[in-house]
């Protein structure tokens, strides 16, 4: 993929697909023996491990989500972004500090201690949904008041920022970065969903109808946060429970007028 949203303080991870087999969801992200022992060219990148460190801190430790439920099937197909902050050398060199490494690992954890001055502080993911997919509202329909006619969309989520940085604009940085990538590169967003995708229709290929529609599963208590980013609640989706927390569906349509010029997206076959 010839696009990137990497910067000194935001890491961009393309869909990891089969590499996710190296991640043990029953263990902490700082305790991934299978991944540590894997061929570096095939193992999960540190950026994804950093993303899971943030998610463990926010969703598992703060909100009580079971550790084994935090990683799901979308993670292998999603784009991920991770925001970092600078960490002074004196913090990293203090063995008593839990932030002695960007991984938050202990000396006895067996993991290599990075010499980087970056500490992961926030993350977000975006998952392309090119085919009809039932929504989690009570009727489980393919369509809602907003989403109709099998239109492709992108679902963003797992937005999380560590407690100490929640008033530093990190959430806005991550949301703007993810939405900016999708609006500028809709073709790449969906083409990478399947590595065999081509720009021409092959046998059994389907054209993806993506017109900028983005969905977020918002906790009911933070809808006002997503409204700041232009999302509106779809009342037809009702409310549903995810890990003991009520959620609603919220949508936003992005402006694709400045997108890359490849205006047809073809994916082999259809939903299995």
Gyration radius, rounded: 19 Å
Indicate how many domains the architecture comprises. 1
Tally of separate helices? 7
Query: What percent of residues adopt helix (DSSP H or I)?
Result: 10-25%
What does this structure look like?
Residues 24-39 have a biased composition (Basic and acidic residues). This is Glucosamine-phosphate N-acetyltransferase. It comes from Saxophila tyrrhenica. With 272 residues, the protein is an alpha+beta fold. The chain has a single domain, classed as Aminopeptidase (3-Layer(aba) Sandwich). Helices cover 21% and strands 23% of the residues. It has helices at 33-36, 46-62, 67-70, 89-92, 170-184, 186-191, 223-228; strands at residues 10-13, 79-86, 118-129, 152-161, 206-207, 210-219, 232-233, 240-242, 245-253, 266-267. Strands 1, 2, 3, 4, 6, 7, 8 and 9 form an 8-stranded mixed sheet that branches. The radius of gyration is 19 Å and the shape is globular.
